Amino acid sequence: MKTFDYHRPADVAQAVQGLAAHPDAKLIAGGQSLLPAMKLGLAAPSDVIDLGGIASLRGIRRDGDRLVIGAMTSHAEVAASAEVRQAIPALAALAEGIGDRQVRNRGTLGGSLANDDPAACYPAAVLGLGATVRTDRREIAADDFFLGMFETALQPGEIITAVAFPVVQRAAYVKFRQPASRFALVGVFVAQGAAGVHVAVTGAAPSVFRFTAAEQALTAKFTPEAVDGLSVSPADMSGDMHGSAEYRAHLVQVMTRRAVEAALHA
């Protein structure tokens, strides 16, 4: 690991100033992605700007028909929150299933979204619930946020401050875990609410995506049987030592069916 200068700003404005002053700097939230990358030599920032000291980036609150969660709120805090468990139980359950206890206590919502790992769980919740990502500059709809593998709509120097999740009628998240990392080989978040039915899939492709054929079928009839016979093309899926593209394509339909079953019995 190369040497770097460490900064711990007291507010978002100071963090923004730090990024502007140091073009090769990196933000660190929970450090669950950046620090391993630095140890492997895959990232070598000149400066590391720690968001951990910014109190305004933490917290969970209900705002009308939305649940607003600060970017620096840890997975463990989301999982344990009575507010989240009451408003969107599927989101609490998703957070509780991320990684292991250490990852859940260090990893953050904003860090996960900014990194946009193809197999991360939170992108499925954000896209599945039709959430809005708030930054220091603007608000970004979920459908516009995820652009590709490790690629988001965030501009250089832009910082996620919070995410606003609509409270829906029913939702569920299920994933087929890679046993070592506990990342999703395929994870599916299904939600039914005022905006209709959303089905978001993570782990299967280079980036999280909506399973539109399933959304249409479930809009007509919200039952597990509605997705029987539906499929996605293996040509659009990822393949690796843990599962071929064909295997992941098959799992998308299987996990969608299970997610619908879970949502109906939640």
TrEMBL record:
GO molecular-function terms, A-Z: anaerobic carbon-monoxide dehydrogenase activity; FAD binding
SMART domains xref list: CO_deh_flav_C
Keyword DNA-binding found: no
Domain FAD-binding PCMH-type: 1-170
Listed EC numbers: 1.2.7.4
InterPro entries for this protein: CO_DH_flav_C, CO_DH_flav_C_dom_sf, Diverse_Substr_Oxidored, FAD-bd_PCMH, FAD-bd_PCMH-like_sf, FAD-bd_PCMH_sub1, FAD-bd_PCMH_sub2, Mopterin_DH_FAD-bd
Keyword annotations: FAD, Flavoprotein, Oxidoreductase
Enzyme class name: oxidoreductase
SUPFAM superfamilies: CO dehydrogenase flavoprotein C-terminal domain-like, FAD-binding/transporter-associated domain-like
Pfam family, one: FAD_binding_5
Stored Gene3D superfamilies: 3.30.465.10, CO dehydrogenase flavoprotein, C-terminal domain, Uridine Diphospho-n-acetylenolpyruvylglucosamine Reductase, domain 2
UniProt keyword RNA-binding, yes or no: no
Name of protein: Carbon-monoxide dehydrogenase (Acceptor)
Organism encoding this protein: Pandoraea terrae
